[in-house]
Amino acid sequence: MKRLADILLSVAALLLLAACTDDADVYNTPASSEGNLCVYVPVTREGDDVTSSLDPSNLTYNASVDECQINDLHLYAFPVGGNGTFFSQELPSPEASNMLNENVASYQLKIKPGTYRVYVVANMKDVLDGTPINTEDDLKNVVLGYTPMSKPGMPVANNIPMIYEPDTKAADSTTVDGTITIKNTDTTPQTVVANLRFTCVKVCLNLIYNPEDADMNSALKSNGLQITDIMGKQLSPQTNLLWDGKFTNPNVSDDYATGIESKLYDATASTGNGSYYTSWTENEANANVNNEDIITVAGEGVAAPANSKAKWLFRATYYLPEHYVAQASQQSALKVGGAVGGSAIANSYNINLGHRQDENSTTEVPTFPRGTYYEIVGRIKSLGNIDLDCVVGVEDWQMATIDVDLNHTTLWVSSTKAEVGSQKVAFIDYLTNVTNGDIKFGCDTEIEKITAGKLPVIVATNDIATHRVRFSINPKLSVADFTAAKALKGTAKVWIKAGNIKKYLDVSYDVTPYFKVDPIDIVIFWDDKNKDELTKVVNFSTNLGGIQFHSDWSKNPKGDYDVSYAQSTINIKCEDPNAAEGNFTITATSNPGTTTTHVFTVKSNEAVKDAAGKEIYKEQQIRVTVRPPKGNYIIYMRAINDLAWCNGGGTEEYKHSLMLDEDSRLGKTNNNWRDGWWEEQDAKAKWGSDKSPHSDYHFVYVYTQIGETNSDGTKDENNTEWYFTKQYDIAADTRNTVSHDKDMNDYKGKWWPGSKMTADNNNPGWYYYSIPVGAQSVGVNKEGKAKKTIKPGQTLLIFSNGTFLATGFQSHRFTHHNDPGITLFNYEDNEGWYLYDPLSDPYYRVFDEKPTVVDVEYTIYTERDGISGWYARFGVNSGDGKGKFTMWCNNYVSGEFECNEYGKKNGKTWYKTILHLKAPLGEYDKILVLKVNGDEIHTTLFDGDNYPSTKMHGNRYVVEGSFDTDTKKWSKGAPF
Questions:
Q1: How many CA atoms lie within 13 A of 811 on its CB side?
Q2: Over the stretch 182-219, which tens digit does the pLDDT of each residue have?
Q3: Helical (H) or strand (E) element with 255
Q4: Residues 6 or more apart from 510 whose CB is under 8 A from it?
Q5: DSSP of 707-734, one letter per residue?
Q6: Radius of gyration over alpha carbons of the chain, in Å?
Q7: Which stretch of DSSP H or E encloses residue 256?
């Protein structure tokens, strides 16, 4: 058998539990002043997965790590002759806490003086819960039930009931009473060495079918065999928790003698365990050798033989109840069922379980005692229902036992767990009675340092004066080392050793690569009289070697970076870019004229590997907005999704072919200038190539009004209006607008449409108008009225492209005809950003900060039929205010508005439509009405909801939704 001791690693017990009685306490400082009873429990555990650093000492007897697992512990101390006070104490299961040495968990208790018999049971919580235990007889009367509805049921490998009973034999083999006596005068704790014992039997069954055996039945040889089932027969229905030491039982009841049956393996239902092997070695000399098996398999087992006529070995391990009987006919057995050649011809083979204590006796009744390991090797050579002749190895089966020199060194720690990270340390306090020179620290968990061998994950720094230990990630290990070891997160086994006590601690660590920068949105107001306000500090932290800036930037003579964008220049300075935690400063060094936003990316010094193994850097985008000196109101406006030519009372089909993606360049040539407001005569033909600003087609009308406009759009004669933009001289208008002739003849006004706006080359696509704070009105519609002062919340704004002046209504304006003007903002920085989108509701939005306009691919999935067109009703297109403009499109444009078959689901065809529009980041709702299958179904895009973006397609944000044409309902995302 494989030496299971090679995977022994002792751990300590969790302490500081509340006692179950008022007279018992568990201490994690085993000082004589606090504890007077010390209990030691052997522990077997797997070695660390990273280091595979295993302790080969303290052998088990044919027991695996799973079999030795302790899930719960309970201690009972029964007073003898009324001397003492009974107590019952649930102990923590061993979880790396208080260690006497590498193989022993220790528990320190304080109980009242007296004479006691002490028992420790493990993995019995489900049996003992609800069972009153007050006397030793109560414990002796506890039974282990093995029928399906009883507790604990048939034993399983990782929860086998175990018990320690008081020793009745001394080291010199003399008989003792198994008691301990605790006195008030004791200066050191009394000890209990709780070597736990299994309460059941372990059977390793090996069945061999070898057609090459000389005495193999010919029919069996030619047809082959496969195991169908294995039944446990005449198994004990229940046993006592405590064994009385007798190997025979002449007074068994009929129920006990008959026993129970249990199906241990069923090939058809995949129940129980059992596997087939084609390669193994056999050494009968190991039949009685500890930790060595007669049969050693090679390779992985399979559920069924590939060829039932070829040589195979079937192997399974079962845990069965002990069985003590009066006569051999009552002993437990295994009944193995087999099918010949895959047919219904059934064979069965009986294997009796147990052995005689005296193998030379011919009269002794075989017994099946707890704590025994049976390795059975049976060769199947015959047909029929027969007893199978087997080779049986009989050995002890037990956990590692404690055999140490027990002294009473003490070691206490404030915690058995800690958490560390790349920039996070942990502290644990400790107390001990050993000298400082005998305190040692270590970490069993190691990883491979690239080119430097294995190094411990955690290092400890001990402050002798304060008895405080600082744990941190080993600075010699990089994130790349952890990544290569696939150990970015884990729990390291760290220990503190005082004399002969070693206490294990679980130190969880996380070195997941990170790169954090804060803040990432920065605003600087230009104020050359207050230099301190021109500088902002940005902090960073990372475990990737520091920070680096744009590779195209050049350092100035001082070693800093001067970065210019439009009319704005900022200086970036970092004293220590290689620091794990540091900062850099951003200083505005020039007046930007208008609000200007610098966007740049910083990244980590070191790269990490992504899921595909590609090296990438952690990055963070930073936005620095530099604003001009606070003073005038600066009114910004931009129009998006307005690419439909207006002919006065209506619009032509939407020009999807003219839609351009957002452009990050500066200046007068930029995609963002194409907004559809340039309506010069014959300009329609030029839209496809135009990327220039047109200030003479962007006006703002600034006014204050007392009274309301009539419902038909006319002004009430009692209304008073004050104007803050200059008069408009139609005769001096040199523009050749689409409505030029009609306006020249019919327009009689002098204040509308207000003043031209200025194209902001620092923010392409945006136009601005600057007006002083406290500006006085420059005109009024009634003589004798006093001037008005511009005032947020009272002063109104209307934006337009200055066409169709005579009628007043047109699609390229906001607010629309008859709608009240937009109030002037009241923002602290005196800047406001007005964004017009006729395909949204509301059709304009006002922002304190410049909004990020993004390209959006509305990805629409429709069942059964595709989308053939869309339309949206908005604004006002009649003097009475009742009519609306209709923006519409019925023609596909590749990459902008297209529809294709997507796939089939449940026999139905789904179609996928791509619709490219613009939106402020995060606000994707639209008022578009989609036409599905011509005019059969009209439905509002996403029911008007703001569906989230789910992914990117290049620089476009993808927003997905599905429409079921049967239920007429929308849902987020793709249908499949």
A1: 31
A2: 999 887 788 888 999 999 999 999 999 999 998 888 88
A3: helix 254-258
A4: 419, 420, 421, 422, 488, 489
A5: S-B-TTSPBPTT-EEEE-S----GGG--
A6: 44
A7: helix 254-258
Classify strands 260-266 and 114-122 as parallel, antiparallel or unpaired.
Answer: unpaired
Q: Which residue type occupies 815?
A: T
Report the alpha-carbon distance of residue 953 to residue 942 in Å, rounded: 20
User: Distances in Å between the alpha carbon of 968 and those of 193, 900, 938?
Assistant: 75, 20, 10
Burial of 129 by CB count in 10 Å (0-12 exposed, 13-18 middle, 19+ buried)? exposed
Per-residue pLDDT, 957: 97
Q: Sign of dihedral through CA atoms 943, 945, 951, 954? A: positive
Strand (E) or helix (H) holding 743: helix 740-746
Residue 673 sits at φ, ψ, to 5 deg, of: -70, -20
Strand residue runs (E) in 774-840: 779-780, 796-800, 813-814, 822-823, 831-836
Q: What is the 3-state secondary structure (H, E, C) of 370-407?
A: CCEEEEEEEECCCCCEEECCEEEEEEECECCCCCCCCC
d(CA 107, CA 97): 10
Using an 8 Å Cβ cutoff, are 351 and 375 in contact? no
Cα–Cα distance, 509 to 788 (Å, whole number): 67
CB-facing half-sphere around the CA of 122: CA atoms within 13 A: 25
| Residue 245 confidence (pLDDT) | 77
Q: Where are the beta strands (DSSP E) in 610-697?
A: 615-627, 633-639
Contact 707, 719 (CB under 8 A): yes
259, 239 contact by CB (below 8 A): no
Whole-number Å distance between alpha carbons of 58 and 567: 78
**Which tokens go with 576?**
């220590």
| Cβ(490)–Cβ(508) below 8 Å | yes
Residue 32 has pLDDT above 50, yes or no: no
- Select the more confidently predicted residue: 969 or 175: 969
**Contact of 538 with 585, CB cutoff 8 Å:** yes
Q: Which residues contact 206 (CB under 8 A, 6 or more apart)?
A: 294, 295, 313, 314, 315, 375, 376, 377, 378
Rounded to whole angstroms, the Cα distance separating 294 from 723 reads 106
The SS3 call for residue 482 is helix
Go through the chain and tell me how many residues it has.
Answer: 976
In the numeric block, the tokens 């935690």 are attached to 581
What's the CA gap between 953 and 957, in Å, rounded? 6
- Backbone CA torsion sign across 5, 7, 12, 18: negative
Whether cis (ω within 30° of 0) applies to the bond prior to 211 is: no
CA-wise closest residue to 102 among 158, 58, 136, 59 = 58
- Please return the burial class of 184, using the count of CB atoms within 10 Å of its CB with bins 0-12, 13-18 and 19+: exposed
Helices (H), 409-555: 479-484
pLDDT of 687-718, one tens digit each? Answer: 889 999 999 999 999 999 987 665 555 556 66
Give the DSSP per-residue string, 208-249.
EE-TTSTT--HHHHHH-EEEEEEEEEEE-SEEESS--S-S--
pLDDT at 534 over 90: yes
Q: Which residues, at least 6 apart from 49, have a Cβ–Cβ distance to it below 8 Å?
A: none
The overall pTM is greater than 0.70? no
d(CA 340, CA 218): 12
* DSSP-derived secondary structure letter, 629: P
- What residue spans of 808-867 are helical by DSSP H? none
Sort residue 82 into left (φ over 0), alpha (ψ -120 to 50) or beta. left
Q: How far apart are CA 530 and CA 524, in angstroms?
A: 11
Side-chain half-sphere of 421: how many Cα atoms within 13 Å? Answer: 11
